[in-house]
Amino acid sequence: MKTQGAVLPRQRGIDISLLKKNAVPLLFAALCILGVMVSGMDPSFLLYEIITRFSRNSFLVLALLIPVSAGLGLNFAITIGAMAGQIAIVTITHYQIKGLNGLLWAMALSVPLAVAMGYLAGMVMNRAKGREMITSMILGFFANGLYQLLFLFLVGTVIPMKNRAMMLPEGVGLRNTVDLYGVARALDKLWRINIGGIWIPMGTLLVVALLCVVLQYFMRTRLGQEMRAVGQDRHIAEVAGIDVDRIRIIAMIFSTVLAAWGQLIFLQNISTLNTYNSHEQVGTFAVAALLVGGATATRASIWQALVGLLLFHTLFVVSPQAGQALFGIPQIGEYFRVFVAYGVIAVALALHSWQSRSK
Amino acid sequence: MSERFQDIRERLGIPRLIIIGFVLLLFVTAYATGMSIGPLVSASLVRIGMNGILVLAMVPTITAGVGLNFGLSVGILCGLVGSLISMELRIRGFSGFFAAILFSMPLAVVAGWAYAKLLNKVKGQEMMVGTYVGFSMVALMCIFWLAAPFSSPEMVWAYGGQGLRYTLTLDNYFGKVLNNFLLVSIGQWEFPLGLFGFFGLLCLLVHLFFRTKLGMAVKAAGANPRFAEASGIDPDRTRTMGVIMSTVLGAIGIIVYAQSYGFLQLYMAPQMMGFPAIAAILIGGANLRDARIPHVLLGTALFQTLLTIALPVTSRVIEGDISEVARLIISNGMILYALTRRDGREVA
Amino acid sequence: MAHALEMRGITKSYFGNTVLKSVDIAVNPGEIHALVGENGAGKSTLMNILFGMPVIHDTGGFEGEILVDGQTVNIESPMDAMNLGIGMVHQEFMLLPGFTVTENIKLNRELGRPNIVSRILGKKFELLDKEQMGKDSRQALDKLGVDIDEWLPVAGLPVGYMQFVEIAREIDKSRMKILVFDEPTAVLTEAEADLFLNAVRRLAESGLAILFISHRLDEVVGVAHDVTVLRDGEVVGHLPGQEARVDRIAELMVGRKVDRPSLPPREKEPSDDDLILEISSLSVDMPGERLAGLDLKVRRGEILGIGGLAGHGKVGIANGIMGLYPSSGIVYKDGRELPLNNPKAALSQGIAFVSEDRRGVGLLLDESIENNIAFTSAQVQDRFLRKRLPWTSLQVRDNEAIRQYALETIKELDIRCQGPEQPVRRLSGGNQQKVCLARALALSPEVLFASEPTRGIDVGAKSLVLDLLVKFNREFGMTVVITSSELAELRMVCDRIAIVYQGRLIGILSPDASDVEYGLMMAGKKRAEVS
């Protein structure tokens, strides 16, 4: 009996505003093409650089997706995860566990650290509802202070550690750079193929692909559904009986663990640990890459993450050369890319708050 | 006794007590290790005077209901440009100092106005947007420093390189003019009266402003925009006023800071300069909704004293420079505390 | 036969303030039972008790008992209520706009299919069984007789359909026996409401017991088998459906005839010959209190009451004229057109306003009493400023003048406080309201709009506030316009009472008019239709 119900047309289908919807990535694509043309870089070198950067950074960007879907916004505190990863890699380097074995150990070791840190970060976020992003950013800075305290003053004094190669000459504190020869490219080297003279790290890319599949799966589970519900409206989710605070903490834990692994993948490729700097810009660059792909603080997909990564890093590679070609000053390009990273975040955040207010 | 302690604890808050305790501990350590207190205090006083105005710049935005001004670097950049113009014109000494302020003022008003327009559109997210507007402006200005048409040989790279130097010495311009003005020395103790007088004057002006008709409107609209509207006030306008004031104070603040430091720091240096100011006012007892002059004075005094004496004192006990790490932990810890306090939540 | 739901002798007080007095209500299966009452009559408290909301336990629980199917039950949390088969359709939609209809219906009750991963990591990692979820949703929607695509996102649905999704969610819960509707049609258009009421009837026919809370009396009369009327926390009437008539219900809701105290006489009685405000076709876009073309004339020197049921727009009048919500229409003050949407203009034309939202709009809670009193006058009239500088914006406040005026006013209005420097947050509701009145008084206005001046303050303070309004009127010759949900108090002090219905003026009554007349008019029936 469907006597009085009006029939609504099915509204799914083609979206005419496709162009408008993808304005941000399209703009950056144009910028990239322009940059590539102006810089006049060797295409195979350019391709190699982009593939390398793409493979080593993608994990970190993907780590941002879960907090976005759980309504926590852009998690600038993935730097904490990166720190967990660095603590783990310092540990295995100290014990001289090498190769893929070492990397796996580091990944295992970083999990309990990242879980604990993610849990604490989640608790902090739950006390700062409505301003999670600024809080996550400051939390990252704060954790950085504690991290420096650990590696500058506690290692060698409170924490017994003796390793000439890694420590400062006084025996207290870690050197500014630690050579990660043990795990250098452990994952990249696992399976590489050479196409037209460019080495493609298939092993790493495979791991990234696997993560994408896992994330896809996760968002279709009960837990993923609950996260999406919490992300849309905390209050309604709560009324429906979902433990909102718990879900948010879980989201932070996942993000922190993924960031820890992401940083390990990053470091094995770089092969050197900048003890006090490697993690600092992780949050900013990952967030900027995600936003360049067209994501917002409330909506982010795997595709946006991947496209954003490609565009952002292309821009990153060509900027100095383009600056040199255009103005004769390579630094202009360097500062320009920093400006782009910060500017895209500022604009995206402003638009986001604008939209959420006009609703 | 315990009740009195409770009262003190409630009025000051745990983090403030920890910091006060820390400062006291440092002084005790200094005394115990046989350091002379005089130079420590004198150095602290200079640091308080040179940083105070940047901290004061937080008062207008908090009072106007915009919150902590994470985009203070917008004002700082204006101050830097003003100083550069003053230097380029070779105005030296006190005239150079005032010329720098004069040149930066219109820039700060315009930049503050534009910045306020943006912040009015992103109510509730001002801190986050402000931070990244500040960061991106700093990066954008880096390109300006590279390309700007300054020609004074003391300002641009002498050889190679293009554009302005990273750090510009103010020795021949207005370096230390305020620090040395009315500097009173008694034994090893030094009191920079000129520096403090200038800081005090600005505090007084801000204090007086909030007692004027306009200032009262700014304050009321910050505390309760709907109340203000019902009294015929446009809250967007008063917020704009607050942001402009803060930006102007940021510009003056960096000029005073630079004259005391003796150098002008360009490029990425201004990026994080707002953060210690934010931390200081929070340490002084302000929160996201309420900031007053006493918070500025207490906060700057505690934070700068701590930073100034931490290095010389701790270096006697611990190897290495722990003061930078302490600054990171204390300032960000303090901001984190303010962001996660329950009573501050109403802002959002 | 046992009642599906029975609440017996429910009594509840918050901090010594009794809000429910021995309320009895019973609903049978297959029956639609309407619960009506003005704002603050106790409906929401009763529902909070039924659903075991934490606010009840946190404030000392309640007296009385709840029976489901004749069995006494103990409901300590919303979960308990759900397990007993009691469901609630909320006034505001509890729907996630980005989710599909199905996802919303199955929110937090998703169906999953076990697989290897979930066997290791637990149920939370089961993949969703979208197919079965869709089928269940289809079934629930069919039961209601609505043909919405269960896979559409909720965001684009018309408001009426969102309501159906809400209901479908409740009936999809197995063992649902009792369904509560809280103001379900408040946001619906008339056509949608009809559709909706049909669905409700259908649900009742299928054997559900339905508790229907509404302000729209004609609707209640149309659909209910039984009507219970609450007023001031008490059941004041219980009418079987066939006896329930709109005027009778309205009379019960607002009734309570009071003796009018003798008010001080005036030299000259206000009349239509001397108007201070002429309002024509005023529309105000105030959420929940919309005005749609109101015409009203206010006589100089009178006390005019504005009454009407909640949601019909009576509060919108003052808020519109004062420029606090977007409005259109024409308002003449002393024959001159008053610019709308401009608070400053209204204030400087000698119109003052005491807001119904005392803590939200009326006060700076953390400021002192004296600052609150002086603020608006200083901003609008440049009073209390030291005129040392030529630019008024930069003139500094005159602390002495402020203090002196505050002390005088505190005395005159009898504000109980520790002194003029006390922050108003720490004052009682009645004294806070007096500060609001003092702030308006400092403007020496010709017209004073007082919205719900006695809401949320204790009984003793209520009459003090009303006395003050009378005093303003008689001693200072101020024209006073009081908007109030409490008809009784309007009838105590007003010269005339205007009744607003569906955003328009429906008529003006004398304070001596009968309860029936008031009841009818508030229900939208003009006097002519009665006789």
Description:
The complex is a heterotrimer of chains A (359), B (348) and C (531). By secondary structure, chain A is mainly alpha-helical. Chain A has a domain of 240 residues. Helices cover 67% and strands 4% of the residues of chain A. In chain A, the strands form two sheets. In chain A, strands 1-4 form a two-stranded antiparallel ribbon. In chain A, strands 2-3 form a two-stranded antiparallel ribbon. The longest helix of chain A is centred in the last third of the chain and has 29 residues. The N terminus of chain A is likely disordered. Chain B has a domain of 234 residues. In chain B, 68% of the residues lie in helices and 4% in strands. In chain B, a hairpin with a 2-residue loop joins strand 2 and strand 3. In chain B, helix 10 crosses helix 12. Chain B is globular. The C terminus of chain B is likely disordered. Chain C is α/β, with parallel strands linked by helices and 531 residues long. Chain C has 20 helices and 22 strands. In chain C, strands 6-9-10-3-11-12 form a six-stranded mixed beta sheet. A six-stranded mixed beta sheet of chain C has the order 18-19-20-15-21-22, with helices on both faces. In chain C, strands 2-1-4-5 form a four-stranded antiparallel beta sheet, covered by helices on one side. The two termini of chain C are 43 Å apart. The mean pLDDT of chain C is 86.
Cα Rg of chain A: 22 Å
Name the strands of the widest sheet of chain C in spatial order. 6-9-10-3-11-12
The order of strands across the largest sheet of chain A is: 1-4
How would a crystallographer describe the biggest sheet of chain C? 6 strands, mixed
Rg of chain C, Å, rounded: 27 Å
Tally of alpha and pi helices of chain A: 14
Structural class of chain C: alpha/beta
* Subunit arrangement of the protein: heterotrimer
Distance between the termini of chain A: 37 Å
Please report the distance between the alpha carbons of the first and last residues of chain C: 43 Å
Poorly predicted ranges of chain C (pLDDT <50, ≥5 residues)? none
